[in-house]
Automatic annotation (TrEMBL), chains A, D:
One of its GO terms (cellular component) is plasma membrane. The chain crosses the membrane at residues 30-49, 61-79, 86-105, 111-130, 137-156, 176-197, 230-249, 261-278, 285-307, 313-336. Keywords: Cell membrane, Membrane, Transmembrane, Transmembrane helix. One of its GO terms (molecular function) is transmembrane transporter activity. This is Monosaccharide ABC transporter membrane protein (CUT2 family). It is found in: Cell membrane. It is a multi-pass membrane protein. The lineage of its organism: Bacteria, Bacillati, Actinomycetota, Actinomycetes, Geodermatophilales. Pfam families: BPD_transp_2 (PF02653). It comes from Blastococcus colisei. Its main location: membrane.
UniProtKB/TrEMBL annotation, chains B, E:
It comes from the Bacteria. One of its GO terms (molecular function) is ATP hydrolysis activity. This is Monosaccharide ABC transporter ATP-binding protein (CUT2 family). SUPFAM superfamilies: P-loop containing nucleoside triphosphate hydrolases (SSF52540). Keywords: ATP-binding, Nucleotide-binding.
Length: 343, 252, 320, 343, 252
């Protein structure tokens, strides 16, 4: 009854409403702080070890972080959608072992690469189908396939670590370098970029976030939530397939013993990066930082020659500390910002 | 405003639905014509929301028939109902708390350029829609979870309306709205109905029904018990129909 | 008690062994056996199925069991001592005639073994030495001694000076023993122990750890790996860091990626346990125990040191 | 305006409202079906193996299920409250290793027992404090302490297992039997009973369920949700302490390498039992069934002599199958019920 | 019905609250006397619910002062506010979906016998309370999550009332209720007020305010802008106060 709309009023109102956010508003404060903390950790290691900042070590770091990062980016989608994938380590073992066997059997490298990707995606599809269409919680499904997939890999290899002929293209993938960085590192960069675009720029990403927040609401919006959920798990399977190929290529052998406990490292990286385990919030940049942080800690502690007995203790403590600082510092960031505005 | 001879948009016959031992719907009939505003009333727990969820495909019914545009349909999912151009504002709103206002508004049909969501366009269009509806939010970038109850509800209404549906279902759309916003929504209802949309309005604000409805369907304990043109009713009679008692003198 | 030839011969017998149809080397001993061997049931509780090492023990045991018609039930301990204890209890309940066990935790296995002994089931310990009267027969070598042997070899290479980096597996008691024996030998010989990293008994973890070890210690000359995943990971790390020219590596358990290193000479020596003999002798002892025949308390199986000179003689271990 | 309340009407209405539910209404259908499936699995093994139903084997089974069950009951509370505890395996290792060392150092068994319980509860308290009061997600906290706790255990034992003198009362706890069942089994029974009462009869249980469903609602109801959350994690720590003592007593040694991956087995048992990983729904009886099912599968497969390579494959497949049947069968149960009513 | 000279129950002075960049409350004053029914009105997003969360201890304010019974208090948690006998029905109800009706009703103060929750007594008492309030649910054993919107709301009201608070805050308690239930709630409000309880009623149904309130406080964009005895208002004036415009002729 008092809606006396002047001409153009709605227009200015709408312009005000859609005003793009400033860089600071858009930035995820927690991720920013996390980046700062990671830099601080790096600075500490750089001061304590001469080798840490050498190009050789940085290149090493990039290679070492690659498999974790690749799977963690995909896992970011899985966790953001409120699911989880515990089978990634087993898929890596499976793909690396079977690829090596196929190479031994005389398959061409390119075929084996394709087979590796298909196997990864295939296992992901199995996980996804049981989760999305049979309605079994992803935790259970992937816990079961974790055991099944590694079991099959063990069965086929009988415990042998299957060597990969270093003259094959497959093996060279492990040692190929470009601008001083390994192929693994470049692939990881590519996948992070793809992950960023997919989560923040594609409908799929919107639905993944939405499903994590309120699956039923997304379903009622007419989205095929089952397909989206299946896709997330397929992506993590595919990523594990890629990681399996890279691990095998780098080691020059495929083994069913690879990547045990890998899932926990990956999930740690994702959650450390600020993605909520209950779904609905996820960031690929955070995952990148989380994966780098975990790898840097392992690398740095070795470089400064810490006893292997102390390594897990220090790693755990640092993780806890980092998250703690991070949580506190959303407040700190606002306080700083307010100071900045005032001055 | 309405077109009494208009063709039948929706026809529900003998819809039943049980949740385990609880029988929420025991056989409901309902019809909706083009350009008509139908008021659906009933006591708390009468089954109104359940019926509307069935019509919107969010819930599958056990028995009975749904006809849209005269054709029998069966909705396996909300997407099917949307395909028949049925739009709905759920009583619980069905929003995603961690997505921003614009994303919620366009969930499921984001404007896109090639494979990419066109975020700028999405926010601009969202702002336009919200400004048109006089929705009071500060930015289309705000997360839905941080809005006030009334703000959330207006976003949900904006969402349903912007689908340009043939059938618009509003399940207590004004429950959390302030006076001016209620007026906007009532105006909106007559607006869309005059463009030929069939509207089903569920509300407990009986006086609103008399301002926009053409006909009232009354539900009681999971059954549709009355179907009366608004002209034959006054507020006491309506209350009596809802509570299944004789009309009394004292009026609320 | 048995028609055993000297266990040391078994290594050189490899050439005939690999031409054998089953591709397994010939056993160096056979059980005396009895009439009812084809009714016997024997359980074998191993550590895990992921290492070639244990699978070869299993293979040999299975081959001999097949030969004598013995019903062999193999159970994986999945790296968990409680799982092993559960398995032994279940086998006893099932009424097997003998149990062979490769213990994860040489202390933690004892109560289960004692329970088996009380139930009248004879027990053969293979690989890891379990010091308990309930164990009827021990088959295997002391892991600490093997570590000391390869330490001696490294001392020869280094002339008794320099620093050794170690890629270990802290979650494996056996490998910790190997590490301890090695450390004692080399420090006595004048070398020092440098950085120790944990490969967690997983190849690519060992690789990453070894890479960090190599980068962090650019002058490091000598390296030691305590098990198969550690050695494979270490070998891959040496290659990825192109450190073949500056390092000398010793370790445990022959594997295909290790052979290249032996060939190229930067792997100076690998301790190889005679896994097939472990399997055969354990099985033979188990059958004899089940038959009530007398057996020795210990069947020492010599460890073999594979070097760039003799590695070709040992390749039969890698034929799957 | 039509509220013409007749005298006594409210009374009958209230009696109707509070009418106790029938046994069938109260029973958790999913748990019932799960029990039936478990019985079916048992029947299968009983038919395939003569030994399965012998008293010796059943007594074995009871001993084997005990540590998993004890921790799983506590974990039911943790998961129902929407938390998780990944550190239980490490706590078991820590307690078993340190108890063995204390015994070697000449402490009296009774003191060591108390120390073991205190250590378990203490680590649980650490987890709980960081989760409830520092606001760090339980997944991260316990992932970090998982590494720290086992690290400390490894450090103190240097990775070697510490033997326990079999003449001590502590060691005898491992072999003590009553009515043919081991002390572990009886303790597990006791803890299941306590768990049942606590979850379904105490306020604490109500709050645990409520917090899992809607933490903020429980907080607004004036409940100290932080304390409740801390308690759940303390309980799982305490349970892990008990399990650690029992494992050490049973093995006659304490090792920092025991119980690796134990957390996954426990969580599998809990989730298999029908407790929701997202919190808000939990049943101790379901957990009991889940733990028994997992143990029975391992035991049965050994008895019928399945190849060890097939064991993980079969185990995973059976788990998936069981859950699948279970999900389908809530519908089946209703259908059966309806048939039953009609006939 | 009210006692104008009654002592001051609640006094809020200059309450402010920001969520990051959003300033929800910019300085709100409010007073409530014993036995008084205070209407709190304002546009959607005006900050009414936020203010009530502050008063109920669910949210901590940034600045300003809260006095209860004349003593300055600071609520670190809802438990503190309950300690001052402040009861509230939240706009979002704050129920636990997987608990049953009786458990929700008694959450935080379950009847117990020794250490055990006395489930039978709990269900009996719950049934009594619900029957007294004419709440239409089929069983106290039903899970809250499966109730209809109106049923949930009545349970939340029953919950707040059964605390026997000194201050009762009702944040849009009748939004989802059917006519008869609204009447019950209004009757309930006058009932408890006559027993000396101070009631704060937030609602967008302005006509209800005129039936039960003694005084109206108006909020606008995070500030309290008016505080008027009901006698000085009619519905047009009230609408004008809420929307900050001149009173008009046409009435909703
Ligand atoms: N998922 C469910 N499980 C069990 N019972 C349910 C479920 N959903 C609804 N019901 C029951 O069905 C009946 C009808 O609910 P419905 O939400 O349709 O009522 P309504 O007419 O919309 O009421 P209101 O006016 O309060 O919104 C209620 O008694 C409710 O308890
Ligand atoms: N957690 C939060 N984060 C950010 N902004 C918030 C948060 N909670 C509330 N707000 C903002 O504070 C303002 C006041 O909200 P509040 O819920 O108090 O309004 P209200 O007066 O109750 O409105 P309604 O009548 O619609 O219920 C709104 O603009 C809302 O967007
Ligand atoms: Mg409804
Ligand atoms: Mg509000």
């Amino acid at each position: 009854m008092t809606a006396t709309t002047l001409p153009g009023e709605a227009d200015t109102a709408s312009r005000r409403l859609a005003r793009p956010q400033s860089w600071w508003q858009r930035a995820n404060k927690a991720t920013l702080i996390m980046a700062v903390v990671t830099l601080a950790v790096c600075a500490f290691f750089a001061l304590s070890s001469d080798t840490f900042l050498t190009f050789a070590n940085i290149s090493n770091l990039a290679t070492q972080v690659a498999p974790v990062l690749i799977v963690a980016v995909a896992m970011t989608f899985v966790i953001t959608a409120g699911q989880i994938d515990l089978s990634v380590g087993s898929i890596i073992a499976f793909v690396s072992a079977v690829c090596a066997q196929l190479l031994v059997a005389g398959w061409d490298s390119s075929l084996v690469l394709i087979a590796g990707l298909l196997m990864g995606a295939g296992w992901g599809l199995v996980n996804g189908w049981f989760t999305a269409y049979a309605g079994i919680p992803a935790f259970i499904v992937t816990l079961a396939t974790l055991s099944v997939i590694r079991g099959i890999a063990l069965l086929t290899t009988q415990g042998f670590s299957v060597p990969i002929d270093s003259s094959t293209f497959f093996a060279q993938l492990g040692s190929a370098r470009w601008l001083g960085f390994s192929s693994s590192a470049w692939i990881a960069v590519l996948i992070v970029a793809l992950g960023l675009v997919t989560l923040h720029r594609l409908r799929f990403g919107q639905y993944v976030v939405g499903i994590g927040a309120a699956e039923e609401s997304v379903r009622r919006a007419g989205v095929n939530v089952r397909r989206v959920k299946m896709w997330t798990l397929m992506l993590s399977g595919l990523a594990a397939g890629i990681a399996g190929i890279l691990v095998a290529a780098r080691l020059g052998s495929g083994s069913a013993n690879s990547a045990q406990g890998f899932e926990l490292t990956v999930i740690a990286a994702v959650v450390l990066g600020g993605t909520s385990l209950f779904g609905g919030r996820g960031t690929v940049v955070g995952t990148l930082i989380g994966a780098v942080l975990i790898t840097v800690i392992a690398n740095g502690l070795t470089l400064i020659g810490v006893s292997p007995f102390l390594t897990p203790i220090i790693t755990g403590t640092v993780l806890l500390l980092v998250i703690w600082v991070n949580l506190r510092s959303v407040g700190i960031a606002h306080a700083l910002r307010r100071l900045g505005v005032r001055s | 405003m309405t077109d009494e001879t208009g063709d039948l948009l929706v026809e529900l016959r003998g819809i039943t639905k049980s949740y385990g031992p609880v029988q929420s719907l025991r056989g409901v009939d309902l019809t909706l014509r083009r350009g008509e505003v139908l008021g659906l009333v009933g006591d708390n727990g009468a089954g109104k929301s359940t019926l509307m969820k069935v019509l919107a495909g969010a819930v599958q019914h056990d028995g009975g028939e749904i006809r849209v545009h005269g054709r029998p349909v069966s909705f396996a999912s909300p997407a099917d109902a949307q395909g028949e151009k049925i739009g709905i504002v759920y009583q619980d709103l069905a929003l995603c708390d961690t997505l921003d206002v614009a994303s919620n508004l366009f969930l499921g049909r984001e404007p896109h350029r090639g494979p990419f969501v066109d975020k700028r366009k999405m926010h601009e269009q969202a702002a336009q829609i919200l400004a048109d509806l006089h929705v009071k939010v500060s930015s289309t970038h705000q997360e839905i979870g941080t809005l006030s109850g009334g703000q959330r509800q207006t976003v949900a209404i904006a969402r349903a309306v912007s689908f340009a549906p043939d059938v618009l279902i509003l399940d207590e759309p004004t429950a959390a709205l302030a006076v001016a916003e209620v007026e906007s929504v009532l105006r909106l209802i007559t607006d869309v109905a005059s463009r030929g949309v069939g509207v089903i309005l569920i509300t407990h604000r009986l006086q609103d029904l008399f301002r926009v409805c053409d006909r009232i369907t009354v539900m009681y304990e999971g059954e549709s018990v009355d179907d009366v043109p608004i002209g034959e009713l006054d507020i006491e009679k309506l209350v009596a129909l809802i509570t299944r008692s004789e009309p009394q003198q004292g009026v609320a | 008690a048995c028609d055993s030839s000297s266990p040391a011969e078994s290594g050189s017998a490899s050439d005939d062994g690999s031409s054998n149809a089953s591709s397994l080397p010939e056993p160096s001993m056979q059980p005396e056996g009895c009439e009812t061997t084809d009714e016997l049931e024997i359980g074998l509780v191993t550590i895990n199925l992921q290492a070639l090492f244990f699978n070869q023990i299993n293979e040999a045991a299975q081959a001999m069991a097949d030969e004598y018609g013995v019903d062999l039930q193999i159970i994986s301990g999945e790296n968990d001592s409680v799982t092993q204890a559960n398995a032994i209890n279940t086998l006893v309940a099932d009424g097997v005639d003998a149990i062979i066990v490769a213990a994860i935790d040489t202390e933690g296995i004892k109560p289960a073994i004692r329970a088996a002994d009380e139930a009248g089931v004879p027990v053969v310990a293979v690989d890891a030495i379990v010091e308990d009267p309930a164990v009827d027969t021990q088959v295997g070598t002391a892991n600490a001694e093997g570590g000391a042997q390869i330490g001696e070899l490294l001392l020869e290479e280094s002339g008794g000076e320099g620093e050794v980096g170690i890629v270990g597996a802290l979650n494996s008691t056996i490998q910790l023993e190997r590490q301890r024996g090695f450390e004692e030998a080399v420090t006595e010989g004048g070398m020092t122990i440098g950085t120790v990293v944990d490969g967690r008994n997983i190849q690519e973890n060992a690789q990453t750890a070894a890479e960090n070890l190599l980068t962090g210690n650019p002058d490091l000359q000598y390296l030691y790996a305590t098990g198969e995943p550690a050695l494979i990971g270490l070998a891959a790390a040496v290659r990825s860091q192109a450190a073949q020219d500056r390092v000398t590596v010793v370790g445990w358990d022959l594997a295909e990626p290790v052979v290249d290193g032996l060939e190229e000479g930067w792997i100076a020596g690998v301790v190889q346990q005679n896994t097939f003999e472990f399997g055969y002798q354990a099985m033979a002892a188990a059958i004899d125990l089940a038959c009530g025949n007398p057996v020795q308390e210990e069947y020492p199986v010599d460890t073999q040191i594979v070097t760039p000179e003799n590695y070709e003689d040992y390749l039969y271990y890698l034929e799957g």
